[in-house]
Structures
1.
Amino acid sequence: EVKLVESGGTLVQPGGSLTLSCAASGFIVSNSAMSWVRQAPGKGLEWVASIYVDSSAYKYTNSVRGRFTIATDRARNTMSLQMNNLKTEDTAVYYCAKGWGDYGVTEYEHRGQGTQVTVSA
């Protein structure tokens, strides 16, 4: 059974940093394309970043490029999202998802339950 569990979400001040983690079971993260997506209050699901098999490719939505870093850890079978210089508009529930994402992609093979990130002074 495929399972994805996110952790690390919390309240952080603007300009701060945070790392989200996604623990996977039932498949090998590093052998899969994986994504982070988010949903802000009152808005739809937004693709944030994707990483390809064996970290061979990455891509980010324009609003986070240069601030966020997606990575996988083969030994721990996890995926992470390092978020720096956080802005209030980054406030959202963040989900990890199995699959290659892109702008407008809202359906993924599997998705976790999400972790809340709130950026506020």
2.
Amino acid sequence: QVQLVESGGGLVQAGGSLRLSCAASGNTFSINTIGWYRQAPGKQRELVAVYISEDATTYADSVKGRFTLSREYTKNTVYLHMNTLKPEDTAVYYCAADTIYGPPATYWGQGTQVTVSS
């Protein structure tokens, strides 16, 4: 199994920045993809940014040029750097990881709230 713990959410004004962290533990060697999703009130959960392989990433069109993924292997941690935040970025942000061993599964963190005020 894999455990994911997010941190770094909060309240920020429009135009500001935040960095979210996702610390993975457990069978991290089995992780295939890892990244971030978000869910705003009344909306479906959507992909924000994901590592689809060790170095390849995919981003939602709405965050391209503003959000950036990075990872620190020694800490089993993935970061989401969010710049030029907009009120429409307000959501609960979830870290998620897909594993390919033992059997394949998707794991989710508990989520962290990001609120962007106008």
3.
Amino acid sequence: QVQLVESGGGLVQTGGSLRLSCATSGSIFMINSMGWYRQAPGKQRELVATITSGGSTNYADSVKGRFTISRDNAKNTVYLQMNSLKPEDTAVYYCNSVLQRTPTDYNGVYWGQGTQVTVSL
């Protein structure tokens, strides 16, 4: 079994900051990429940021310069530092791990349960 556990969501005022964390645990051989996605009410889930095992990052244009993704490979944990938050950042944030459970396994995609981020005016 593979489990992703998120933490760090909450309510913050416009311009504030939050840091999300997501730890992946279970039967894992290698985690390739990790990422954060979000889904606002009535909208589709969208990519926020991803990071590879080598540290290469990719961000949605809407969060560039404000959000920073990082990972601790020893802890199988990915972080999302969110600064200068805006009301339009309000959403449920989901973490994701693309990983192999064995050396011969294909990559599988696993998701966390989601954490609510609400940015008030």
4.
Amino acid sequence: QVQLVESGGGLVQPGGSLRLSCAASGSGFSINGMGWYRQAPGKQRELVASISSGGSTNYADSVKGRFTISRDNAKNTVYLQMNNLKAEDTAVYYCNAAVFHSGRWRSYWGQGTQVTVSS
């Protein structure tokens, strides 16, 4: 069994920063792409940023220049550094990973972590 466990969410004032982490645990697996999604109340889940196993990154237009995704392959961990946060960044953030385990590829999701940007 593979699990993704997120941490780092919380309440922050506009203009502030947060760093999210997502660690994959289990045994006998390998990971390809990883990413962060978010879902605000009443809205669909959307891609925030993604990173390939080789380090290529992709960002939603709304976060370019403010958010940075990175990963530590040795720790099976992906990070999202969020700077200059805005009220519209408020959402539940979910980690996602393409994982090869038990002979097949599957998409795994974390449990979500709340990010609230408010004064």
